[in-house]
Amino acid sequence: MTQHASSGTVSIRNAGKTYVSRGRQVVALDDCSIDIQAGEFCAIVGPSGCGKSTLLNAIAGFDSLSAGEIVLDERVINAPGLRLRPGPDRIVVFQHDALFPWATVRENLIRAPMLQGRLSEAEALARARELLARVGLADVEGLYPGAMSSGMCRRVEMVRALLNAPRILLLDEPFRGMDALTKSATHDALLELHASTGGTVLFITHDLEEAIYLADRVLVMTSRPGRIKRAIEVDLPRPRHRRMLTSGRFLALHHIAVEAVREEAVRAFVSGERELA
Ligand SMILES: Nc1ncnc2c1ncn2[C@@H]1O[C@H](COP(=O)(O)OP(=O)(O)OP(=O)(O)O)[C@@H](O)[C@H]1O
Fold this sequence. Notes:
It contains seven helices and ten strands. The longest helix is centred in the last third of the chain and has 29 residues.
C-alpha cells in the first residue's frame, strides 16, 4: 500500500502559465518556485485569482505549464510540451462531491486499488476500514453517499484518495462552505490521516486560520501573476489541538499571514483599477 507514500518531494522551478482566452493573454503564474519536502503539509493562500488552482492543476497534471518545470521525486511531471500523465500518484480532492452516488462507501473506496491490481479485495477492505476508523466513520461502509452529510463525504473522499497511496495529496478548498463544527471535525480527520500515512499534502484555502492550524508551512502567493511571496513556517507542535487557536504564537502567525495576503489583495485591487483605467 505504501509504495508511493514514503516519497513525495516536489520542486516547482520557475513555473509559468499563460492562458489565452478570446485572443487575450492572462499570465496566471510567472517564475513561481518552491521546494516541498516529502511528508510536508503545505497550505497555499493568496488573493482570489492569483493562480493557486492553476499551480495545483499543473502539479496534478491537468494542465500544461508555459514555462519552467515541476519535478516529483526526480521525475519531471510538467514542462512546456511534455505529455502529461495524471494518475494515482497525485490525487486531488475538491470542494464538490466526487463519490459515486450509485455505490456504497465500501465500493467507492476499494474499487480503484482493486482495479489497478495494487491491492486484493481483502487488503483494500482492511486498509479502508482502518482509515475510516481513524476519521470516526467506522460504521458507514454500507451507506450510499446520499445518506451522509457533506463533512462525512469529504472524509470518505480523503480516505479514498489515501487508499491510492499518492506521492502527494492535493486539496483545492475542500472544506469551503462547511459550517464551523463540521469544518473543525474534518480538519482533525485530515490531521489524523496525515499523521498516520505521512504523505505530502498541498492544500489550497482562503481561510488563514485553517491554513495555520493544518500546515507545516503556509505559502503566500503574490497577486497575479502568481509566485511564492513568502513561506511562513508554522512552528506549532504536533499533534495540533483546537486550544492552540487562541495561543499567542498562533495569533502572531495569523497576523503575519493576514498582513502578507492583505498586501497582495491591495496590489491586485490597484492593478485591476489600472487595467480598467
Ligand atoms: N482556463 C482558463 N482560461 C483563461 N484564464 C484562466 C483559466 N483558468 C484560470 N484563468 C485565469 O487565471 C488566473 C488564475 O486563476 P486561478 O483559478 O488559478 O486562481 P485562484 O488563485 O485559484 O483563484 P480563486 O482563489 O478565486 O479560486 C485568473 O485570472 C483566472 O481568471
